[in-house]
Amino acid sequence: MTLIYPTKTEMPALDPVERRALWDEVAVGYTVERALAExxxxxxxxxxxxxxxxxxxxxxxxxxxxxxxxxxxxxxxxIRTRNVLPAICGRVCPVxxxxxxxxxxVGRLEPVGIGRLERFVADWERVHPRSExxxxxxQRPEKVAIVGSGPAGLTAASDLARxxxxxxxxxxxxxxxxxxxxxxxxxRLPKAIVDEDVERLGELGVEFRTDVVVGxxxxxxxxxxxxxxxxxxxxxxxxxxxxxxxxxxxxxGVYSANEYLTRVNLMRAYDFPGYDTPVKRPTRAAVIGAGxxxxxxxxxxxRLGAEETHVVYRRSQTEMGARHEDFVRAGEEGAIFDWLTLxxxxxxxxxxxxxxxxxxxxxxGEPDESGRARPVPIPGSEFELEANLxxxxxxxxxxxxxxxxxxxxxxxxxxxxVVDHETGRTSRPGVYAGGDIATGAATVIxxxxxxxxxxxxxxxxxxxxxxxxxxx
Amino acid sequence: MATILDKRELTPVTRLFVVEAPLVARHxxxxxxxxxxxxDHGERVPISITDFDVAAGTVTLVIQEVGKTSxxxxxxxxxxxxxxxxxxxxxxxxxxxxxxxxxxxxxxGAGAVYPIARELRxxxxxxxxxxxARTAELLILRELLEPxxxxxxxxxxxxxxxxxxxxxxxxxxxxxxxxxxxxxxxxGPMPMMRAVAETTRPHELLTYVSLDPIxxxxxxxxxxxxxxxxxxxxxxxxxxxxxDAHRVDFDEAVVRSKMYVEEEHVALAGAGR
Lengths: 472, 273
What we know:
The complex is a heterodimer. Helices cover 31% and strands 16% of the residues of chain A. By secondary structure, chain A is an alpha/beta fold. Chain B folds into two domains: 2-89, Elongation Factor Tu (Ef-tu), domain 3; 101-257, Rossmann fold (3-Layer(aba) Sandwich), CATH 3.40.50.80. Chains A and B meet through strand 5 and helix 11 of A and helix 1, strand 7, helix 8 and helix 9 of B.
C-alpha cells in the first residue's frame, strides 16, 4: 500500500508582490505531472462520500480515476455528465465547504484537491476541444425562454438544449454571463473562459439575446403568449445591493461592491482611459464585509493601486464567509483584516469625497439567530480609519423586476420568488425559477444545481410527465 | 444593435436621432429612458426617450454633446448602428388626472417633456409648456411641443425670444398670476430643476423632477444612481427617474453628479489624440 502525501499538491501561483499590479489569473493551474500526483492522493473509496457534497452531483471518484489513468478526455466526459461549466466551477466553487469537506481523508490529511483537479481537466479540455455540435439529437418543437445568463440560466439552457428544445437566453446587460461577467474579477476567473463556455452553448443551438430586460423590454406574459415560448426559467440573480443606512453613505468614493466590480470587470475601468468607464483609484481602500465579494473588491483595490487596503468585518475570522483560498490570497497580496470592527458613519471632505470611516470595536457575545456569536460594540472604542475609497460588500437582495411585472408569481418577505426547491416551480404554471432570485445570495454552484433541477422539471412539464433524465 | 434611421441637428450641440428599436417603442411610456453604448470600449449612458412610435418601431432620442460618449454618439450618421440600446427603463412619469399642468423643460429637457405633454393632453389635462434656452437658436423642438401645449412659453437668458429670463422665474410669474397649476414637471439641467423646486415649494405645488444621475447597468443592480429623497436612499434607475422635487436632496445630487469630472477631462483629452 502506498502512503498518501498529507498535503495537497501545490497549486502554482503568480508571485504575491508582482501580481499586485497584474490582472492576470493568480492561480496558474496544475501541470499534467501535478494533476497525476494529486489524483493519486485519491483512494477511490467504495462509497464516494465526497459526491454528497457536490450540489450538482459530479461523479468525483470516477473523474479522478480517469485522471489517474491519464485519460483526461474521459475525465472531462465524466464531469460534463453533471457539470456544464467545469472550468468556472474548478475556479470559484467553495470546495472546502462542499466536496472536499466530505473527502474521506479529512481529519487526518488534507482532502484531495478536487476543485484543482476539476479545473485541470476543464483546462485540458479547453486546449483539446471536442465539439458537441455533430452529435445527433432529437429536436423538439417547444421553445423555452431563459431569463438571465448567470450560472443558473446557463446551466438550464445547456440542459434544455441537449434535450432538444429551442432555447433563448435573455440578458439585460450587453454581455453574457451574469455574475461570472460583472462580478468575479479576471484574476480569479478569466473572461476568456466565460466566452468559451458561452460559445459552446451557442454550438448547442442556444440563442442569446443581450440588451433585453425581461419585465421592461418584454414581459413574461408576452414570452408565454405571442412569442411562443412554452416555459420560462427565471434566473435573474440577487441583483440589488444592500447598503448600511449609516450617515455619509452617499459620499463620493463610496461604492456598492456590485458597482465597483461591474465598473472594473464588465466595463473594464481598470483600463481607463483605454475604456471609457472610469473608477476611482484609491490610495487607501476599505472594504466592508468578509465574503467572496469582499475579497474580490479588496484584491481589485490592491490592483488599482491602493497603498493600503483594509477589510472591515464586524464579526471575527471564524465567521467570515469567503473561500479560504481567496482569503489567503488577499492576505498574501497585502490586504489588512480588521476583524470585530463596525463602521458607524462615513466622513467626507469639503468636496463631498469620503476620507475616513468612523468605526467601533466589537466583542463577541451570545449566539444570535444565525447561530453565530453576536458581535456587540465595545463602549468608547470609536476610532477613525482613513480611506478615500469604500466598498460595501454586505450582500444583495433579489432583483425585483420580474416579480414586479409578472402577475401570478409569489414572492416571500425577502423578495425571493417562492419555488418548490425540488423542481424550481413557481406559483405560475410554466414559470420556473432558481439561483439567487429564489434562495437569496448564494454560490455559483448552488445556482447551477437549481438550473439543472428546473431544466429537468421543465422537461417533465413539457412532456406531460415523462422523466427528466438528461440521458447525457 | 440599433440602427439609426434619421438624424437632425437641433442646435450646434444638440442632435435628434430616430433609432430602430421595436421592442422598446412598444413598451415605452412617457418619462422612461434607455441606456445605450456606442462602441465596444464605451460607457453605458442613460438617455431620456423623447418620442416613441409603436407602428414604426422607433424611438426618438435627443442628445446634447457634453462629453466623450455624447460626442461619439452625435458623430453617428443614419444607417450606422448603436452597439447597444436597452429599455425602456425606469418608471413612467406619475401622470396627473387633473390640470392644468406646468411642464418645464430646460435645454435638451424640452425633448423629454414632450411625451408627457402629449400623454397628459390625451387624458384631457391642460398643459402649459415653459421651455428655456440661453438664446433663441438653442431653443429646441418648438414644432413638436407647441402643438401639444395649451400654453407655450419660450424663455431665453438673453431675451432673444419670448420671456427674458429663466424658466423658473416665468413659472413663478404664471403661478402668481393665478394659473392654478395642479402639478409641475421639470426636466433639464440640475440648477434649473432645483430652481423650479424652490419656486413651487412656497406654493406647495406638487412638483416632479426627472433626475439623471450617473448610472451603470440601469436595472437596479449597482446603486451608482442613488439619490436621497426625504432622507431615504432611492435608485433613480428603478425607483425613478421622477421624484418629488421638494424632498430631493439636491446638494447631494449635485456633488454626486460631479464624481468623475477629472476623469471626463482625461477621456476627452484622449479622444482628441
